[in-house]
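Renewal narrative, Specific Aim 1. Our central claim is that a sequence can be written position by position from structural information alone. The example that follows is taken directly from our test logs and has not been curated for this report. It begins with the structure tokens describing the chain, in the order in which they were read.
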């Protein structure tokens, strides 16, 4: 199992199916900054709040020349519904096989009420124009997080 990439690491390449049925790949963002936020499940409270926060700052991220990508293990149909319900302005990648999630070290053992299970660790990466991780946020708390990521994106050349 891979570990979550830290600043300075090369972002592992990926290609995922996305909302709307197309694909989204790391190479699509070459020469631009990219925020990748990993969320456990579409249309759940924390994930919805987090995605809405990123979407609310979309113009500021665009002004900082930074794209946004949300990724979960949800099926494309779930991603489509999630995006349509909240009118997100960024792609939602679907990784039901968990290849990208494992490559990025976010598919981990979790525990709730004493029960252990595998799931996505809510976490975020800011990838620089050169494909290198500029900042990483493991184990994200939603409140204020999108604003922290935006500040880092604005500070990154």
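The sequence written for that structure reads:
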């Amino acid at each position: 199992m891979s570990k979550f990439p830290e600043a300075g690491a090369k972002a592992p390449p990926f290609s995922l199916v996305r909302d709307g049925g197309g694909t989204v790949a790391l190479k699509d963002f070459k020469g631009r900054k990219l925020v990748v936020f990993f969320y456990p499940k579409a249309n759940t409270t924390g994930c919805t709040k987090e995605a809405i926060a990123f979407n609310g700052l979309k113009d500021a991220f665009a002004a900082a020349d930074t794209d946004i990508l949300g990724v979960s293990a949800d099926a494309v149909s779930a991603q489509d519904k999630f995006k349509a319900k909240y009118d997100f302005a960024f792609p939602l990648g679907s990784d039901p096989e968990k290849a990208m999630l494992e490559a990025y070290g976010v598919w981990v053992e979790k525990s709730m009420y004493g029960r252990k299970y595998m799931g996505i660790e809510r976490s975020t990466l800011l990838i620089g124009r050169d494909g290198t991780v500029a900042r990483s946020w493991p184990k994200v708390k939603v409140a204020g997080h999108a604003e922290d990521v935006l500040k880092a994106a604005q500070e990154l050349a």
